[in-house]
Amino acid sequence: MAAVTTVSASQARPTMAELAARRISSGTRNNRQSKRYSLTALYVSMSAAESDVEVDDALARAQKRLRDLKAKISAQSKKNFLLERDVRYLDSRIALLIQNKIALEEQTEVATRLEESEIQDGSFPDHRKLDGYGNLFFLLQTEPRYIATICRLLSMAEIDSFLQTVMFTIYGNQYEQREEHLLLTMFQSVLASQFDTATEFSSLLRANTPVSRMMTTYTRRGPGQSYLKSVLSEQINQLSSQLDLDLEINPLKVYEGLYRDSYNRANGNAERFSIERPVSAEDAAANMEVLEAIRPRVSTLLHIANSFLSKIIGSLESVPYGIRWICKQIRSLTRRKYPSTEDSAVCTLIGAFFFLRFINPAIVTPHSYMLVDSLPAENPRRALTLIAKMLQGLANKTVYAKEPYMASVSAFVDENKPRMNKFLNDLCDVPDFYENLELDQYVALSKKDIWLSITINEIYSMHALLEQHLSTLAPDKSSRLSVILRDMGTTPPVLPRSENFTIRLPLFSRFEAQIESLGAALDITQADVLFMEAKSLLIQIIRSLPSTSPVRARPLDLHRVASFAAATPKDPVLGKKGARALELLNELKDHYSLQDETADIIMLTEEVEEELAQLGSIREKVLVELKSLEAVFETIKDHNEYLHSQLETYKSYLRNVRMQSGPKKSSINDRVGLVAIHGKGRQEPKTPFLGPYKFSQQALQKEGVIVVCNVPQNRVNNLFFYISSPTPGTFVVSLNYKGRIRGLLELNLKLDDLLEMIGNGVEVLDLEYVVVNVPRMLEFLQRQFSRRRW
Questions:
Q1: Binning pLDDT at 50, 70 and 90, where does residue 132 land?
Q2: Which residues form the Ras-GAP domain (predicted)?
Q3: Nearest to 284 by CA among 256, 320, 312
Q4: Mean pLDDT on 533-556
Q5: To pair with 588 at 20 to 30 A between CA atoms, which of 257, 367, 443, 607?
Q6: Bridge partners of 381?
Q7: Do the Cβ atoms of 129 and 183 come closer than 8 Å?
């Protein structure tokens, strides 16, 4: 597939800021500053000049299709991100369920996560709150430092839901220049903080942290996916089709493979090897037959890895701008933090992002990146892993101390290191965007139709995070964020997923001084606005006229064009545009002397002719991009179907477990709710509330559940527990003392909580009065309540 490069008519012609700068430097502006137009009028003129909504020619129709397609890709990317998160969650939970042999009712607790229908649209009932949230999210979007600070404060367990809101909602329009630039500004702040707090050069950008997860998630957006597909898909598919191509070079695995083949050829009577099985890794590496098997594999691997590298290096100009700009920040921050660091060491950090977080995950798991239709077979999968290791070794200048067998491909590093370093440095050579962002922000502050498609729970969760960290985010109580949150009041509780819905949240700023200061910084006068609006209207008029119309002949006479349009009675819209264009041309005369007026009209004519000349090539580029993105959109939709099939696999697994392990005397459907398996429409049987059951402290200590008791020995006999299970997978533990009406403490334990503690290696839970062994507690609860339920 051809590499995707976002193209628009505005990118092929001078921007408004460039136009203003050109006209100022040319001396055509009158020394007398005239009164500025209102910001709304300025926005109207600029948006008309930069869009094609007022024209219905072939280019305008193609651009509309492209805009609609980009919006669909952004929306579908968010849906896929949510599905991938759920699949990862269910995958880890079911693995823990199997590992810990949890009772069937408790598996139902996990199974309910599978019943996640697509979130429906709705409307926010409280208009005052809606306005408040619109103001809050506009502030978050336009001042990325708040989001950057929160990112640094979150744990790995919290980061995914936060990234969902940031990457796919607040900055969810993945092809919109302003949102992309604001998101990159946030990345700059996050990276700067990461470098400021770093204690060791070697650990930078390599540890699995919320910041690294954020960087990885950014590469999974539409532009990054398009690049990966265009650069890697063909070669990965070719390699995946070679099922018998065994490129294993780990001597121990090669030895085992040769032994297995020999055993099979001899029908179970193993032919003698020069070293008997089993062997150590060192002995396998010294075996002549193993070395002979590895030699041609190394040669093939070097050839394939070089072809991958050449394709990646040759794709430099196709790498998405945002990814290259992040590389640029990494280089700049590294040189500032460690000024004496050699260039090759700086390149290893750039490679840690570009290869470790972007390229290599797609090579190792191409099915997850929509580069292949299904999971590659074992041999191609291993070959792809080795190629990724070689590319990462090249980017990092690895010596393969942990995997000595990889030294056999060290020639790949030695031969390509200068080539790789040049590529990594070239990645960083992109211009900054700050001037363009300033103008984009000026326009956005004046617009009335900026909005987010956002769920209620995304709003409430972000509100809760801001409230939790307000003292860090905005210590000044008079700051805008503090004022907004104070007006918003307490954070509402998050809704159950079944009650969550999506709304259209209009964004706006209540701080008008911000608009005025930004407008003053741009220094755009009434004459500039007239010039821009006249140019926009005249281009629209000419594009609306037949190509054979005499007024389109070169050189253009702008007054003639406007007069012709104004005198067209059969097209009232065109007539109004012509009349307005004549007004604008006449108004321009009032702002310049005769000499300047002539120069200004000449400049206006030149720019109109220049832009018209570019329209044909722009249309061709738009059509190319449209074709590429249509393929990307189809791939993203296919991936969505794949993720849904994964969820169906989990459903099938749980269904089979119940059928195989359920009681024989009655139907499993009488005991386990059907909603988690068959969906809505059937009544879910009620699950009885079990307990509370009383257990003494001594009994739980004997079971190994309690490992430490902080109650004095003479009072231990008065300590006891009530444990109940209101629903499968939920346990209420109440610690009581004889003679007291109220319990000392009550703990609500979810199956997920216990499983996650075990999965994270948490052995004990401190309940103040007693310390509990988490695995033993899980075993005890499973044994007690599964027996009572059945």
A1: very high
A2: 178-396
A3: 256
A4: 82
A5: 443
A6: none
A7: no
Q: How confident is the model at residue 238 (pLDDT cuts 50, 70, 90)?
A: very high
Which residues fall within 8 angstroms of residue 272, CB to CB, at 6 or more apart?
none
| Contact between residue 226 and residue 322 where contact means Cβ atoms under 8 Å apart | no
Q: CA-CA distance, 712 to 710, in Å (whole number)?
A: 6
Sheet holding 120-121, edge to edge: 120-121, 501-506, 451-455
- Between 157 and 151, name the one with better pLDDT: 151
**Fold type of domain 123-216+433-518:** GTPase Activation - p120GAP; domain 1 (1.10.506)
Angle at 121 between CA 116 and CA 123, to 5 degrees: 130
- The CA dihedral of 308, 313, 318, 321, to the nearest 10 degrees, is 120
Rounded to the nearest 10 degrees, the angle between the axes of helix 210-219 and helix 156-165 is 40
Say if pTM beats, i.e. exceeds, 0.90: no
Distance between CA atoms of residues 37 and 495, nearest Å: 46
- Per the model's pLDDT, the better-predicted residue between 489 and 200 turns out to be 489
- 473-482 residues labelled b (16+ CB within 10 A) or e (exposed): bbeeeeebbb
- Closest to 515 in 3D by CA, of 196, 43, 87, 1: 43
Q: Is the pLDDT of residue 684 over 60?
A: no
Q: 33: Cβ–Cβ under 8 A, 6 or more apart, which residues?
A: 525
d(CA 687, CA 674): 12
Comparing 74-88, 246-260, 650-664, which segment has the lowest mean pLDDT? 650-664
Listed residue (653, 759, 686, 664) closest to 107, CA to CA: 653
Maximum mean pLDDT: which of 272-281, 290-299, 682-691 = 290-299
The pLDDT value given to residue 675: 32
Per-residue pLDDT at 419: 93
Query: What is the DSSP annotation of 60-108?
Result: HHHHHHHHHHHHHHHHHHHHHHHHHHHHHHHHHHHHHHHHHT--HHHHH
- Higher pLDDT pick, 294 / 756: 294
Helix axes 177-197, 210-219, angle to 10 degrees: 150
> Above 80 in pLDDT, residue 90?
no
Cβ atoms of 518 and 438 within 8 Å: the answer is yes
Where do the CATH 1.10.506.10 domains begin and end in the chain? Answer: 220-427
Dihedral through CA 480, CA 484, CA 487, CA 490, nearest 10?
A: -130
The greatest distance separating any two alpha carbons of the chain, rounded to the nearest whole angstrom, comes to 108
Which helix (H) or strand (E) segment holds residue 136: the answer is helix 127-142
Of 368, 627, 454, the closest CA to residue 75 belongs to 454
Residue 32 three-state SS: coil
| Angle, CA 305 vertex, CA 302 and CA 309 arms, to 5° | 130
Could you give the CA distance from residue 230 to residue 3 in angstroms, rounded to a whole number?
Answer: 5
CA distance 612 to 133: 43
Structural contact between residues 756 and 690, judged by C-beta atoms closer than 8 angstroms: no
Report which secondary-structure segment, H or E, holds 178.
helix 177-197
Q: CA 624 from chain center: how many Å?
A: 25
690's tokens: 């079990």
Nearest to 443 by CA among 108, 179, 225: 179
Q: Tell me the β-bridge partners of 722.
A: 694, 734
Query: Which tokens belong to 77?
Result: 């990317």
DSSP secondary structure, 559-600, as one string: HHHHHHHHT-TT-HHHHHHHHHHHHHHHHHHTTS-HHHHHHH
What confidence score (pLDDT) does residue 591 get?
64
- CATH fold, domain 220-427, is GTPase Activation - p120GAP; domain 1 (1.10.506)
Q: Residue 313: count other Cβ atoms within 10 Å of its Cβ.
A: 15
* Alpha carbons 680 and 661: distance in angstroms, whole number: 24
